[in-house]
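Holo model, FE2/S2 (inorganic) cluster. Inputs:
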Amino acid sequence: PSRPAIAAKHPYQVDLKAGKLYAWCACGHSKKQPFCDGSHKTATPDISPLRFQLEEAKSAWLCGCKHTKSPPYCDGTHKEEFVQKAELPRQL
Ligand code: FES
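Output:
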């Protein structure tokens, strides 16, 4: 199975709306972080985005390193050494 790529060494703060269907990028290859842009289909076909919907609007920190244990939310894993020392692909 594929491992997710580290998209960022930090979480993304986003204002989430009530009732909207979101797709959090789980593979790390999306150019529209923290959300899925369909890149997983070619980059890592065995990883799918995490789709979620909230009943109430809220501001949240969504995981950017893609190694959180409570997706789609940041759980602080990005502070670990394997994330902080990782080489990131050049962002366009
Ligand atoms: Fe990463 Fe879709 S682009 S899960």
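The two ends are 27 Å apart (CA to CA). The chain has a mean pLDDT of 95.
Archived with the compound record.
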